[in-house]
Structures are given as C-alpha cells and as structure tokens.
Amino acid sequence: MTDPQVELEHEFSLDIDYNPGRWLELPPRWDTEEWPDIGVWAGRCAELFWRSYERNPEQAGISFLAGTLRRFAEAFAPEPFDTRVLLRMWEPTSMPLQVFTMVKPTLGDREETLRFLVGAEDPDAVEPPVVETFRTEFGEGLRAFRYLRQDDAPEVVAALRYAWRDVEVGADVVLWTATDDTARVIRAAQDIEELAHQVSVAVWDLEAEDGASAEGMS
Predict the structure, then answer these.
(1) Which of 199, 172, 184 is CA-nearest to residue 95?
(2) How many CA atoms, within 13 angstroms, populate the side-chain half-sphere of residue 97?
(3) What is the domain partition of the chain in residue ranges?
(4) Which of 1, 203, 210, 212 is deepest in the core (most CB within 10 A)?
(5) Residue 19: how many CA atoms within 13 Å on its side-chain side?
(6) DSSP state letters, 99-153
C-alpha cells in the first residue's frame, strides 16, 4: 500500500474536539507520564467502556477488549508529535477502526499538494480513486476513497483520506483510515466526515524560554 510520506516539523500540534462516546484516543508513544504501561491504559479503558454501555461483563469480556485495545495501541500509537490516532468504537465486542490525523507545514501548490496527500493518483490503486471536494471552514478540501493491495497480498484494502490547507497558519492537514474490512470504513464514514470538521491546528513557539507554548489556534 502506498501512503504519502511527509517530513513533519514540531511547530504544530492538533486539537480535535471529538465525541468521547464514539472515539477513543490512543496514547502517544512519546508520552510516558500519564500511563506507566500500555497494558494499564488498555485495561482501564476496557473497563470504563463496558461501564458506559451499562453492562457488567465477566472478566473475560474486559480482558478481551483490553487485549484488542492493546494490540491497536502497539500497532498504531503515534510517535511524531504532530500526529494523533483515534479509534472509532462501537459495541465492546466490535472491532474498532483506527483513524489517523497529521499536520505538516504547507509546501507547494495547494491543489497539487492536497491531491498528493489523499493519494488521488496512487499507482497502487486497484481502480482510479474516487476524489471529491468537501467544505471546511478554511475553504475546500479533498476527500478520496480507493481500493488497493499491499505487498501482493490477496486482501483488498479500503482507504479513505481527507486533506485540507489552513492558509492562515501555513499548515496542511491529512486525516485517513485504511483497513481490509471495507464494512468498517463504510460504517464509520459519516463519523469520519464529522471528525474532519472538528480538527484545528495549534501553532507553537519553539523558542520560548519556558519551553514550547501555544502561540495561536486556528
């Protein structure tokens, strides 16, 4: 599977006003203060999630969900400062869907860059990607849906990407998911669309004497 690779700079961060009843954020790998161990995070979240459904499962139910969350965190927890990863959660026994968000400094022509970020001309796509515009408070962005194969594997991967440019702060944002379970992407499509409208960019002053601090929000 071909995913655009971009160089990130730690001058931006992302603010996402997501619904905690639908989304669970994976803890970043670089943050070791809040959770002493990924297993502790997974176990606590699994217990709270079951409670939110007002169900009292056997310990096996909590352990199953905790194991699922731990595997997702081990596979997808972000390392870059400018990347955040959320899981679209459904019932405690349903498989979540990972959704990534990344911010980078603007580079080059807007239309060309956004088409690159959503994979509009992806040569590995099984068929031409479906590319559409969508409205954001910063102007038009692009949305692309495509099917592709990864490393000659028989499974077809469904990939959904959004990208837009915030001219005021000089940043491009890309939000995406990819999985071989097309049904999960379709089930989450509307929520992903809504999530894209809840993302904003913070600009940080890296030269502040007391450490990096937010200069402004978009």
Answers:
(1) 184
(2) 23
(3) 12-25+82-217, 27-77
(4) 203
(5) 11
(6) EEEEEEE--S-HHHHHHHHHTTT-TTBSS--EEEEEEETTEEEEEEEEEEESTT-
Distance, in Å, from the CA atom of 162 to the CA atom of 173, rounded to the nearest integer, reads: 8
Radius of gyration of the chain (CA): 18
What percentage of the chain exceeds 70 in pLDDT?
A: 85
Residue with tokens 């088409």: 115
pTM given for the model? 0.86
Cα 136 to Cα 171: distance, rounded to the nearest angstrom? 14
Read off the pLDDT of residues 99-151 as tens digits, 9 standing for 90 and up: 999 999 998 999 999 999 999 999 889 999 999 999 887 778 999 999 998 77
The CATH number of 12-25+82-217, from 3.10.50.40, 2.40.50.140, 3.30.390.30, 3.40.1000.10, is: 3.40.1000.10
